[in-house]
Amino acid sequence: MAIRAKCLSALLFCACLLPMAALATEITVASSQVERFANTPVGGRVGKLIWRGGIVMVGHDDRFGGLSGLGFTSREQHLAFVSDRGNFVTGQLIYDEAGRVFGLIGVEVEPIQNSRGAPLPRQFSRDAEAMAVIPRGGIASAVRVGFENLTRVADFELTNHKPGGAAREVAIPDWLTDTRTNESLEAVCIAPAASPIAGSTLLLTEGVIDDDGQHVAWLLGERDRGQLSYESNPSVNPTDCAFLPNGDLLVLERGVSFLSFTMTLRRVPAAEVRPGNLMRGEVLLEATGGDIDNMEGLAVHTAPDGETRIVIAADNNFNDWQRNLLLEFALAE
Questions:
Q1: Residue 10 is assigned to a structural domain of this protein
Q2: What does the pLDDT read at residue 257?
């Protein structure tokens, strides 16, 4: 009995040492193309953008959904999402012959881990809302994830274009850590090489308002560190951010009007993203109604044809009446 007990203990010990990637599960996601936006065909102009097409994604697994933030992890359109229930969702976008996004293939779901390498223990700690890709030498090497409720920021390594492994906590200001609501840290993005604050991380809040009535933001950087703010708008709140290659900042805003969602995409000049400043953005796109859903994720990438494109994704909140929607645009200039 003692020998059997020792063997069982050894087996359990070895099982605990298995890589957490073993917890990743491949799932099937069906996609249907979205042909029109604001009654405009693909290639037409909407606002200050060009409509490039989109997809509605339906996952045959209860864990597919709640997609709150995303980022591209390779030049071959591999991407990763974070979900409200503490998962990484990864896959690869594919395009048709006309250069329109066609579907998401090779989709896997994997639990986000804590700093001890275990899946996040309870829902209060799982609410991942934002993600930014960390480049090293021009290559994606890790992701930086922002959480609300148990508000924090953590980094995760990329392996084969997929984030995972134990969380590495990133120090953030105490006032942000202590804001433990579902309207705290909503957006995380990292400035590109062309930005005046290259390499710095911008943290943007949804419901933390300063004395002037503006959304509080914070820059994490070696040279560029400190508080700044983002102009408040009465009907929408920030849900994500992403930098364009030239350093300009894009901010996605979301609201609710007459029982439907509204969305605004704004562009903030690179020079405005600095400590102590109030960031104001010009409107690139406004939408409401059936063209959109609960738009929460924003990313910028290079399409297969070399064009810089803006991707906006919806969080369906795991509701049957909402969609996992992904829309793609290009700048009109």
A1: no
A2: 82
